[in-house]
């Protein structure tokens, strides 16, 4: 009976992830209260995800069933959270395999960085919610294609770890160029697409003609609010689909007590509600796991480059974010119309998250290297590819007799992964082709990295030799004096880090600011959230720190302050401004 208890414990995803958080915090020697709170929040967060998935399925399933009944086609949504729900619903208790695969993939990624002089990999993926989404879809493929538990875990971990390592690594230098040497890379779902954008943008436009010089309509900034944007987009698309059934049929679905138009509006809003519940749950368990992962990885590989949420670059080109989204959305609409025109057996329903974040990110890189003309052309084409590539991936599952009702929808999951899954569906030996290609990349990357490290070491030695002793001593003395002034007889300053979704860049910013202030001896209490949630935390906040592209969304009360920053992940770049605000906070 005892052995059954432990087997069941490890096979229940919420408890498995809770155990991972517990072990991570114990390894980091956190106090008992932190360990207990983190473990409970991880378990509760995943349970919230399960509740949200139930709401999503109950909203989405009737529409898809009627779509098949009236038009004879399968409906699938391209959305990161809907795909996460599809994985969880299809794998049920076997979803715990995803947890094991994430841990193994992270370990492989760490090893690739530890041996970077051989692999050329310097980046480690630390965008927690993305890690689970990506591993989950590959694990779902192996699960539905009949592979065993350990085959699914090992193969999924290898494929995703190579994706994290190689493509985050490829985006390190372009991210440095965009951010002016911020010291991080992006770890999201469009690294390869962004790399392509960096290469072709100079041929499609002029980088001097930046989109940030254009005046965009203010109403477009409504898409910074994911709740409102999701409700608008999903109401629009569900409305089109439902009306295609005929008003009488929609009224029959609504029932006698609800007008058909209200039913359409409610359906779109329920989708937004379900996604918000899922986001809250994911945010809760990922926040704890990310802190544990980050602490462990930094202890094992202190010189690694962190690959983080794509939103960390948005402040460097706010207009490119909106412009890229706008043209990517237009491309998606054109592609969906094409699929309908040619009577493709799968109806693609776009979701806001990939439509915005995929094309916004690509837009920032395209703008930096090719200006607004490059953003327009590249993002429009990427929007088309995101739909067509997703349709290809969904068709692979349909051909296997195991259709799924959601796919990621992000650019890399429309460019890279459909051909990968097609190859794996033909033969499981295709994974060895991927490994060989990865080794070829690593050979050249390692050679380049060793040369760069040798040059950096020489440059650092020259810089140290040329730095006068009195300069370094005066800097240290000034820092100590500043820290002492702020730490004496002050309560802890309460700082809230805010980003678009509250899952990636704000959590990393929270940890970075905490470390920065701790080193200066400034007592602090840190928290993070999405821009849509900050008002609920204002009562316990002194200072809000967010990306500059979101600062117009923030309103604070008397005695509170807000700070918009460009480089969210390097507090040294805004430290003076932050400390000046801390000095103004009432004791």
Automatic annotation (TrEMBL):
<dbReference type="GO" id="GO:0008982">
    <property type="term" value="F:protein-N(PI)-phosphohistidine-sugar phosphotransferase activity"/>
</dbReference>
<keyword id="KW-1003">Cell membrane</keyword>
<keyword id="KW-0472">Membrane</keyword>
<feature type="transmembrane region" description="Helical">
    <location>
        <begin position="6"/>
        <end position="28"/>
    </location>
</feature>
<feature type="transmembrane region" description="Helical">
    <location>
        <begin position="40"/>
        <end position="60"/>
    </location>
</feature>
<keyword id="KW-0808">Transferase</keyword>
<comment type="similarity">
    <text>Belongs to the UlaA family.</text>
</comment>
<dbReference type="InterPro" id="IPR051562">
    <property type="entry name" value="Ascorbate-PTS_EIIC"/>
</dbReference>
<feature type="transmembrane region" description="Helical">
    <location>
        <begin position="378"/>
        <end position="398"/>
    </location>
</feature>
<feature type="transmembrane region" description="Helical">
    <location>
        <begin position="420"/>
        <end position="444"/>
    </location>
</feature>
<keyword id="KW-0762">Sugar transport</keyword>
<protein>
    <recommendedName>
        <fullName>Ascorbate-specific PTS system EIIC component</fullName>
    </recommendedName>
</protein>
<dbReference type="GO" id="GO:0009401">
    <property type="term" value="P:phosphoenolpyruvate-dependent sugar phosphotransferase system"/>
</dbReference>
<dbReference type="InterPro" id="IPR003501">
    <property type="entry name" value="PTS_EIIB_2/3"/>
</dbReference>
<keyword id="KW-0812">Transmembrane</keyword>
<comment type="subunit">
    <text>Homodimer.</text>
</comment>
<dbReference type="InterPro" id="IPR013011">
    <property type="entry name" value="PTS_EIIB_2"/>
</dbReference>
<keyword id="KW-1133">Transmembrane helix</keyword>
<feature type="transmembrane region" description="Helical">
    <location>
        <begin position="97"/>
        <end position="115"/>
    </location>
</feature>
<feature type="transmembrane region" description="Helical">
    <location>
        <begin position="227"/>
        <end position="247"/>
    </location>
</feature>
<keyword id="KW-0813">Transport</keyword>
<dbReference type="InterPro" id="IPR036095">
    <property type="entry name" value="PTS_EIIB-like_sf"/>
</dbReference>
<dbReference type="Pfam" id="PF02302">
    <property type="entry name" value="PTS_IIB"/>
</dbReference>
<dbReference type="GO" id="GO:0005886">
    <property type="term" value="C:plasma membrane"/>
</dbReference>
<feature type="transmembrane region" description="Helical">
    <location>
        <begin position="267"/>
        <end position="286"/>
    </location>
</feature>
<dbReference type="Pfam" id="PF03611">
    <property type="entry name" value="EIIC-GAT"/>
</dbReference>
<feature type="transmembrane region" description="Helical">
    <location>
        <begin position="153"/>
        <end position="172"/>
    </location>
</feature>
<feature type="transmembrane region" description="Helical">
    <location>
        <begin position="127"/>
        <end position="147"/>
    </location>
</feature>
<comment type="function">
    <text>The phosphoenolpyruvate-dependent sugar phosphotransferase system (sugar PTS), a major carbohydrate active transport system, catalyzes the phosphorylation of incoming sugar substrates concomitantly with their translocation across the cell membrane. The enzyme II UlaABC PTS system is involved in ascorbate transport.</text>
</comment>
<feature type="transmembrane region" description="Helical">
    <location>
        <begin position="333"/>
        <end position="357"/>
    </location>
</feature>
<keyword id="KW-0598">Phosphotransferase system</keyword>
<dbReference type="InterPro" id="IPR004703">
    <property type="entry name" value="PTS_sugar-sp_permease"/>
</dbReference>
<feature type="domain" description="PTS EIIB type-2">
    <location>
        <begin position="493"/>
        <end position="586"/>
    </location>
</feature>
């Amino acid at each position: 009976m005892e052995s059954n208890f432990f087997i069941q414990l490890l096979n229940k995803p919420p408890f498995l992830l809770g155990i991972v958080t517990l072990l991570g915090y114990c390894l980091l020697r956190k106090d008992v209260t932190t360990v207990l709170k983190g473990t409970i929040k991880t378990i509760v967060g995943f349970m919230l995800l399960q509740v949200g998935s139930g709401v999503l399925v109950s909203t989405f399933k009737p529409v898809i069933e009627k779509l098949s009944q009236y038009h004879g086609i399968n409906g699938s949504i391209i959305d990161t959270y809907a795909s996460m729900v599809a994985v969880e619903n299809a794998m049920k208790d076997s979803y715990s395999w995803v947890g094991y695969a994430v841990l193994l993939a992270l370990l492989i990624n760490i090893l690739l960085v530890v041996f970077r002089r051989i692999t050329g990999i310097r980046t480690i993926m630390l965008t927690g919610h993305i890690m689970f989404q990506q591993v989950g879809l590959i694990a779902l493929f192996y699960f539905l294609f009949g592979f065993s538990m350990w085959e699914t875990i090992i193969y999924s971990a290898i494929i995703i770890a190579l994706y994290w390592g190689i493509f985050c690594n490829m985006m390190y230098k372009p991210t440095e160029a965009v951010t002016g040497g911020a010291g991080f890379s992006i770890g999201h779902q469009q690294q390869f697409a962004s790399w392509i954008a960096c290469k072709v943008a100079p041929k499609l436009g002029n980088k001097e003609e930046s989109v940030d010089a254009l005046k965009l309509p203010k109403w477009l900034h409504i898409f910074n609010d994911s709740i409102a944007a999701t409700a608008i987009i999903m109401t629009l698309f569900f409305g089109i689909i439902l009306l295609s059934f005929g008003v009488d049929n929609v009224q029959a679905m609504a029932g006698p007590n609800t007008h058909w138009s209200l039913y359409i509006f409610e359906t779109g809003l329920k989708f937004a509600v379900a996604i918000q519940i899922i986001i809250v749950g994911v945010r809760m368990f990922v926040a704890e796991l990310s802190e544990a992962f980050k602490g462990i990885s930094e202890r094992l590989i202190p010189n690694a480059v962190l690959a983080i949420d794509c939103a960390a670059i948005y402040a460097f080109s706010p207009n490119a974010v909106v412009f890229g989204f706008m043209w990517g959305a237009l491309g998606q609409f054109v592609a969906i119309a094409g699929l309908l025109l040619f009577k493709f057996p799968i109806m693609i329903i776009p979701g806001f998250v990939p439509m915005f974040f995929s094309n916004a990110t690509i837009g920032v890189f395209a703008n930096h290297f090719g200006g607004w003309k490059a953003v327009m052309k590249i993002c429009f084409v990427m929007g088309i590819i995101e739909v067509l590539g997703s349709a290809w991936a969904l068709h692979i599952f349909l051909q296997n007799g195991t259709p799924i009702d959601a796919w990621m929808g992000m650019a890399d999951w429309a460019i890279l992964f459909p051909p990968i899954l097609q190859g794996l569906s033909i033969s499981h030996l295709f994974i060895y082709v991927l490994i060989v290609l990865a080794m070829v990349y690593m050979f050249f990357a390692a050679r380049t990295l060793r040369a760069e490290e040798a040059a950096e070491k020489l440059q650092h030695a020259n810089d140290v030799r040329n730095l006068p002793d009195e300069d370094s001593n005066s800097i240290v003395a000034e820092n100590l004096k500043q820290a002492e002034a702020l730490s004496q007889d002050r309560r802890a300053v309460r700082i809230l880090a805010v980003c678009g979704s509250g899952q990636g860049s704000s959590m990393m910013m929270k940890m970075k600011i905490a470390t920065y202030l701790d080193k200066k001896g400034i007592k602090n209490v840190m928290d993070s959230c999405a821009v849509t949630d900050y008002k609920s935390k204002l009562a316990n906040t002194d200072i809000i720190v967010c990306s500059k592209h979101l600062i117009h969304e923030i309103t604070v009360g008397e005695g509170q302050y807000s700070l918009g920053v460009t480089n969210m992940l390097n507090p040294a770049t805004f430290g003076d401004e932050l400390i000046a605000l801390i000095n103004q906070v009432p004791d």
